[in-house]
Amino acid sequence: MKHYKKVVALTIIALTIVGFIYYFVAHPNTLDSLKNLSVINIALILFLYFLVLLILVLILKVSLALYEKHIDNLENLQLNIWSNIVNFFGPLQSGPGVRALYLKKKHGLNLRKFLYVSLIYYAFIAVVSCILIGIGSFAWYIALSFIILCLGSLYLGFRIMTKKINTEDKPKLKFKLIGLLFLITLAQLLITSLIYLIELKIVNKSISYNQVMTYTGVANLALFVSITPGAIGFRESFLLFTQRLHHIRASNIISASLIDRSVYLVFLFILILVAASMHIGNKIKSTKE
Questions:
Q1: What is the CA radius of gyration of the chain?
Q2: Phi/psi of residue 232, nearest 5 degrees
Q3: CA 165 to chain centre
Q4: Could you give the CA distance from residue 257 to residue 260 in angstroms, rounded to a whole number?
C-alpha cells in the first residue's frame, strides 16, 4: 500500500511539473510577471518562512504541555528542522512520523497521545482556514455565521473527543493551553497569508488581502488530502478549482506558485546546511534506534 501511494505521489509530481512547463510554453507572457521578483522579496519570504518554523517550535512545546511533557528549545528546533526536511524529501509526508517516533523514544509520548495532540492542532488549522475563506469570500453577516458555525463545530468535536479517549491517554485540556495553541496556530496561518500576499502582489499588484485570505484557507485545506511533498499538484488544483471564491486568475496562481516553490526550496537548502553543521540527522536517528 505504501509503495502504491509512493508511485501515485511521484506520478502526480511529474504530471505537475509537466503541466507547469506546458502552461509556460503555451502562455509565455506569464513569465513576464516574474520580472518583479527581487532579492528583497526573496529575503522577506525566507524571513517569514523562518518565522513559521519558530511558530512550529512553539506549537510542539504547547502540544507537549497538554501531557505535561517538556522539550528543550534547542532540541525542539532541531527536531522541527529535521522533520521539515524529511517531510519534503522523504517518502510521502513523513515529517509527523519522524516527530512521533522521536517523542516516543526520547520523551515517552506514545503514538496515541501524539495522535490526539496532532488532531487538536489540525482541527485548529481546518477551522482557521475555513474562517479565512468565510471572511475573504462572503459578506460580513454570512462570514460571522460561518465563524460561529466553525467554532461551534470545534467545541462539539472537543466534547466528543474527550468522551472517546481513554482516561490514561486523555490530554489535559486546560483553557489556557488550548487557547494559546489556537492563537499560535492562527499566527502561523496569518504569516502564511503574508507569504502568499507578497508572492501574489509580485505577479499582480491589484490582488486584495481579502482574496489572499481565501487563497490561504484553500491552500491549507489542500494539505489534508495531499500525498505529495508540500502538497505539490494538490494545492495548485485546489486553488484553480476554487477561483470563484478568491477570483484570482489561473496565470497568477501558477506564477505565484512557481515563486513559492522556488523560494521554499532555498529555505529547505538553508535548513539542510544547518542540519549538517549541527549533525541533527545523526542525533535524531540515534534516538530512534
A1: 20
A2: -60, 130
A3: 26
A4: 5
